Amino acid sequence: MGKLDGKVAVITGAARGQGRSHAVTLAEHGADIIALDICADIETNGYALATEDDLEETRRLVEKEGRRIVTAVVDVREASQLREAIAAGVHELGRLDIVVANAGICPLGVDVPRRAFLDSVDVNLVGVINTVSAAYPHLTAGASIIATGSVAGLIKGGTDNPASGPGGRGYSHAKQGVARFGHDLALQLAPESIRVNVVHPSNCDTNMLHSEPMYKVFRPDLESPTREDAEAGFLGMHPMPVAYVEPRDISQAVLFLASDDARYVTGLQLKVDAGATIALTVPFAHA
Ligand SMILES: NC(=O)c1ccc[n+]([C@@H]2O[C@H](COP(=O)([O-])OP(=O)(O)OC[C@H]3O[C@@H](n4cnc5c(N)ncnc54)[C@H](O)[C@@H]3O)[C@@H](O)[C@H]2O)c1
């Protein structure tokens, strides 16, 4: 018996990284998966996004768990693409219980065009809202919505510093928006017994973190920082002695929130951050 037997989950940004890890983890626990990804690059984003081969690899891994999967190439900025793909997935798999709005970009750098602010907000905030809006008509009591925020949205100086450029500011703006959206939506959907929670990862071991623009933000003192150079900077974020968490660490949080173990957990901002926010925020400032 799996925790998620009989449930269906839609996951955006599922071709690689945390999204793929969520797909495989939820499948391991019995869920069938609707896996969506843009599988193309976005011009202002200074590192490559996933490919259709990556999405196929997610399919292979989910099927290896003995679960069904429907994949589609979808840009979360496009509400109609999401509506179509989710409706097709639900038609094939029969229902929808879990929404993981995870797709994201991080177009860092001082030299990127100002457009990067809007691209960041479009993908990281509007994309989350589009995903939830497209999924909502298919959800019933007991459903669970999980959005991916970021520690960058919870701390001052995360990506809203001059070295991160307009795309970084857009990233912070979007992730703060995701936190607020999750909070307010949780209150709206509670009477329908639909839960909404936000997971906030710190540095996570994926292509987004291991990218040239990210290395430069963490080591502005170096012209061409290597992974090793950047890791010293990553480590500095965390009171716990670790440079980054792994995708499976975030997936365990998603699994809990998706499952009936969390049946009365809603409106949570769940940080998986090796202590980053306790070191970098003022506690109980609102009290
Ligand atoms: N890696 C980190 O350090 C870190 C830290 C905090 C939060 N996050 C967040 O975690 C989430 C997952 O990122 P990741 O770390 O797995 O990085 P990643 O780059 O490996 O994965 C992101 C995925 O989203 C997809 N994607 C991007 N734009 C899309 C769009 N418009 N439509 C559909 N799919 C799109 C990409 O193709 C890719 O497969 C993101 O929301 C990110 O902001 C990451």
Name of the CATH superfamily: NAD(P)-binding Rossmann-like Domain
Bound molecules: nicotinamide-adenine-dinucleotide
Largest sheet: 7 strands, parallel
CATH architecture name: 3-Layer(aba) Sandwich
> DSSP helix count?
9
Helix-strand category = alpha/beta
Q: What is the 3D form?
A: globular
Percent of residues in beta strands? Answer: 5-15%
CATH fold field value:
Rossmann fold
Please explain how this structure is put together.
The protein has helices at 17-28, 52-64, 79-93, 115-135, 165-189, 212-218, 227-236, 247-258, 276-280, and strands spanning 8-12, 32-37, 69-73, 98-101, 144-148, 195-201, 269-272. The mean pLDDT is 96. The chain has one domain (8-206, 247-271): NAD(P)-binding Rossmann-like Domain (Rossmann fold), CATH 3.40.50. The chain contains nine helices and seven strands; from the N terminus they run E-H-E-H-E-H-E-H-E-H-E-H-H-H-E-H. The radius of gyration is 18 Å and the shape is globular. The relative contact order is 0.15. Helix content is 42%, strand content 13%. Strand 2 (32-37), helix 2 and strand 3 (69-73) form a beta-alpha-beta unit. The termini are far apart. It has a seven-stranded parallel β-sheet, sandwiched between helices. It has 287 residues and is an alpha/beta fold. The structure holds nicotinamide-adenine-dinucleotide (NAD). Nicotinamide-adenine-dinucleotide (NAD) is lined by residues 12-13, 15-19, 37-38, 49-50, 74-77, 102-106, 123-124, 127, 148, 150, 201, 203-204, 206-209.
